[in-house]
Each structure stands twice: as structure tokens, then as C-alpha cells.
Amino acid sequence: MIVLKSRHEISLMKEAGRVVAGCHEALRDFVRPGITTLAIDEFVENFITKYNMEPAQKGYRGYPFAACTSVNDVVCHGFPSDQVLQEGDIITVDMVALHKGLHADSAWSYAVGEISDTAKKLLEVTERALYKGIEVSVVGNQISDIGHAIQTYVESEGFSVVRDYIGHGIGRQMHESPEVLHYGPPHRGPRIKKGMAFTIEPMVNVGSYECKLDEDGWTARTADGSLSIQYEHTLVITDDGPEIITQQN
After folding, report:
1. Which pLDDT tens digit goes with each residue over 203-247?
2. What mean pLDDT is predicted for residues 130-148?
3. Per its record, what are the GO molecular function terms (predicted)?
4. What is the pLDDT of residue 92?
């Protein structure tokens, strides 16, 4: 069941969204060659808790960290560790803040020093694909219009869209209905309505869209070892269009 959010719930989600966005803004200077992904996780946890909010991913279904740190061929859900970031790496940092029972979720990607032209294009295309999906998230459209817009654009640029991991409704639960696919035909699924809140979070690969899972049961990688990246926003649907509550400055 899709739960439409009240004005009060949306206001709390916006507060959480501002903290998540602020953390990503701060990470722009923090992410650099020589630091570990575990240091990034500690940075995220400290930032969120400083605002009296909870890093909601920590403990979710047993996940032990405040953030996911996905480097190079890791599609999503990468475990923070002692891995040291190297010049030329790309990394996605995914976090969720919980504020008075309401969630906000955003993943953002970062270049570590100077990166290859292919990696630069991957970041640019994936971020643009996110906004292609947001553009069609308007009252009266259908949920599958989002995935169709994303897939059409990404494939026109020569990359592929991951099928195994998708966007989702969000509010009092981290994951709610509806499911938001980043691929597929248009004009299917639920109609988009005022008060809906959901994430759009395309994961885009340089090679095949197929993924494999590490033995930890969380870390997803590209099956062919190619680079992957992700961008994600939480948005709320209004009569005037989608409002991005995790928008950065």
C-alpha cells in the first residue's frame, strides 16, 4: 500500500533531508586519496548524530555501518573498511537519516583525485539520468515513466542500468511502496499522486547491467568488473511537481 504523507510528516522528512544533503556537501572536501572508507563511515555517523538524528542504515537487517561505501566496480551496499582510497577511484556514499520517525535517503558519488575520462562520463551520465527520472515524477504520470526515462537516456550514452536494485517509497519506513524501477516500458504501475514520497537512485554500469553478490551477503559488484556509480535523491510529490528534499547547495 502506498502511504501519502501528511504536511507534518513531510516537514520532518525535509529536516532529515537537509542533514543528509549537508553531509554530502561536507564529503566533497573529505573524500580524497589516502583516506579509508571506514573513515568516511565515521564522518557520516558523526555528522548525522550531531543533529540529533539517527543513521538509519546502522542495524537495518543487521547492516553494521552508518553508510554504504561503494568503490569502483561495487554497485551498491559496499562495506566500509580499511580500504584506502587511491587516486583515480570513484566512490558512492549512501546514507539515511531518521528524524522523529521519518526518513530521508540519498546516495552521491565522488571522484577521488583525477579520474579517467570514462569515469567522468559515467558520473555525468548517471547524475543526469537521476534528474531525467525526477523530471517525469509529476502528478498523473505513472511510476514506470521514471524508469523508462532513465533507461532511454543511459543506453543512448552507451552505458547500462542495473536491474537488481531499485528505488522505493520512503517515510516512516526506510523502504515502502511503490517500487521504483530504473528501466522498463512507460505507462505502467501506480499513478503518481500528491503526497507520495519515494527515492530515485539509478545505478549505472560501464559494461553489462548484471551484478554478483560478495560472500558478506551485502556488497553487490558488476559481474564483468566494470565501473559502476549511483546517484539518489528523496523526493515528495506536490501539485507543482517533485520537490527534492535531499537537494544539495
Report:
1. 999 999 999 999 999 999 999 999 999 999 999 999 999 999 999
2. 98
3. initiator methionyl aminopeptidase activity
4. 98
The CATH code of the domain that includes 47 is 3.90.230.10
* Residue ranges of the binding site: 77, 94, 105, 168, 175, 201, 232
Which positions make up the binding site for a divalent metal cation? 94, 105, 168, 201, 232
Cα separation, 196 vs 10, whole angstroms: 10
Residue 61 is given by DSSP the state G
**DSSP H or E stretch at residue 103:** strand 102-111
Within a domain: residue 249? no
> What are the binding residues for substrate?
77, 175
| 3-state DSSP assignment of residue 149 | helix
User: Virtual CA dihedral for 143, 147, 148, 153, nearest 10 degrees?
Assistant: 140
Q: What percent of the chain has pLDDT over 90?
A: 100
- Angle at CA of residue 63, ends 61 and 68, nearest 5°: 130
Q: Cβ–Cβ contacts within 10 Å for residue 41, how many? A: 24
Q: Is residue 65 part of a domain?
A: yes
> How many domains does one find in the chain?
1
Joined together, the cell numbers standing for residue 171 give 517515510
Distance of CA 37 to the CA centre of its chain: 17
